TrEMBL record:
This is Enoyl reductase (ER) domain-containing protein. It holds the Pfam family ADH_N. Residues 211-340 form the Alcohol dehydrogenase-like C-terminal domain. The lineage of its organism: Eukaryota, Viridiplantae, Streptophyta, Embryophyta, Tracheophyta. PROSITE patterns: ADH_ZINC. It comes from Aquilegia coerulea (Rocky mountain columbine). Coiled coil: none annotated. InterPro entries: ADH-like_C, ADH-like_N, ADH_Zn_CS, GroES-like_sf, NAD(P)-bd_dom_sf. It comes from the Eukaryota. GO terms for cellular component: cytosol. One of its GO terms (molecular function) is S-(hydroxymethyl)glutathione dehydrogenase [NAD(P)+] activity.
Length: 386
């Protein structure tokens, strides 16, 4: 008996559901859209699960012209390759992958260097559009363009991402844990290990104990830091932070008369060896810099200041040996470092399960926004197929 040929979507548009934001700050609406097939050097991915990051919320609130709508947000996820475009050899249909917001072509000067995780061939951009032709692969039911986010939206059942932003990952790690490695947790771990190079016996101060800050704490603990101070307005974060290595906790509201930098300098006999800003406010960046030790103290800025406030530091303190540096994605080189982090988790060296505080189905994606905005969640996993 002749077999019926299997239906395939390769090379064809796919109709699926997406959570679209049509106006800044408005609830996302589940709509049916069309996702075009991948072009050359592109990969179409079936999203298994995604999660909500503070960066998504920042851009969701952003008014035009910086805010671009309609748009599909999301940049933390895990999925399966549905089809690939011409010239893609690195992954194939059925491979488990995580899309990332930072390109890693592995061929440019920066990608080949250990000094940076930037990619000069495909630099990070905040504007919508695919990296090679600046167009979208999404259209709504009226045939109008829906913009993507960070070159690869994930609040959608299928997405298209450039191969430079696709990381093949072992199927041994569960999708929800792999999802966490595509942004927040990796950013924190990388900042402690690759950017700051935290060493044994050092003191660390972390401003903001979200997923990124807890990643920093975990990285510092694994490097043998003796004192890890968590600074957060939510007192519940201390109990959570203990699991990841936080030894001391400061709530700035507890003693508003004494500057936070004075408190930290007293706790560390002159200032922390390493300070990490994980929130995205210039004022907190200043607090972090003022809290680090003269002579060798290093401040790492992980939060992205979106309010236009300038960062002002005392040049004399720079002359006295303090330094400040920025970091995107914690210095992580996606294609080599993320698989290594996945192995560390499988080897029970890293904690990921504790970062997941809530789970919802795709239809309830707006609940994830409510939880994060109210400070009730670290990471809420959004499952595409409930």
């Amino acid at each position: 008996m002749e077999k019926t040929p299997l239906l395939t979507t390769s090379g064809k548009p796919i109709r699926c559901k997406a959570a679209i934001c049509r106006k800044s700050g408005e609830a996302l609406v589940i709509e049916e859209i069309e996702v075009a097939p991948p072009k050359a050097y592109e990969v179409r991915i079936k999203i298994l699960c995604t999660s909500l990051c503070h960066t998504d919320v920042t851009f969701w609130k952003m008014d035009p012209p910086r805010g671009v709508f309609p748009r599909i947000f999301g940049h933390e996820s895990a999925g399966v390759v549905e089809s690939v475009g011409q010239y893609v050899e690195e992954v194939k249909e059925g491979d488990r992958v995580v899309p990332v917001f930072l390109a890693n072509c592995q061929e440019c000067v920066d990608c080949k260097s250990e000094k940076s995780n930037m990619c000069t061939a495909f630099p990070f951009i905040q504007e919508p559009g695919m990296p090679r032709d600046r167009t979208s692969r999404f259209t709504d039911s009226n045939g109008e363009v829906v913009h993507n986010f960070f070159c690869g939206s994930t609040f959608v059942e299928y997405t298209v991402v450039d191969i430079t932003q696709v990381v093949k990952i072992t199927p041994e790690i569960a999708p929800d844990k792999a999802c966490l490695l595509s942004c927040g947790v990796s950013t924190g771990l990388g900042a402690a290990w690759k950017v700051a190079n935290v060493h044994k016996g050092s003191s660390v101060a972390i401003f903001g104990l979200g997923a990124v800050g807890l990643g920093v704490a975990q990285g510092a603990k694994l490097r043998g830091a003796s004192k890890i101070i968590g600074v957060d307005l939510n007192p519940e974060k201390f109990e959570i932070g203990k699991k990841f290595g936080v030894t001391d906790f400061i709530n700035p509201k507890d003693d508003e008369e004494k500057p936070i930098n004075e408190v930290i300098r007293e706790m560390t006999d002159g200032g922390a060896d390493f300070c990490f800003e994980c929130i995205g406010f210039a004022s907190v960046m200043n607090d972090a810099f003022n809290s680090c030790r003269c002579g060798w103290g290093k401040t790492v800025i992980l939060g992205m200041e979106m309010h236009g406030a300038p960062l002002c530091v005392n040049p004399y303190e720079l002359a006295w040996g303090k330094s400040i540096t920025g970091s995107l994605f914690g210095g992580i080189k996606p294609k080599s470092d993320i698989p290594s982090l996945a192995k560390s988790y499988l080897d029970k060296e890293l904690y990921l399960d504790e970062i997941i505080t809530h789970e919802v189905g795709f239809q309830d994606i707006n609940k994830a926004f409510d939880l994060l905005i109210q400070g009730k969640s670290l990471r809420c996993i959004i499952w595409m197929d409930t």
